[in-house]
Known about the structure:
Elements: H1 4-20, E1 40-42, E2 48-50, E3 58-61, E4 67-70, H2 88-91
Amino acid sequence: MLDDTSYEAYLRMSSEAYEQRCRRCGACCGAFESDPCSRLKKSDDGHYLCSDYENRAGMQKTISGRVFMCVPVRKILFESWSGSWNCAYKKHN
Length: 93
């Protein structure tokens, strides 16, 4: 049986392994759409990053100001969005 410390370490490792799957394509944040999240930034190497990743979940705005609910990608794995064919999370699901 796992104690609280071991379980917390397991959850942290699982979360880190899950995050490492991401290719930083930006598809789940609207990179392939005409009105992406205003926090989505493209790096010099062509990857996309959230400018406030730790606080991304919750109400956000697109570049045009449309309000939407940002959710962890694991909650939308069985949905489709523009560019979702490229999502590494979906390919491993």
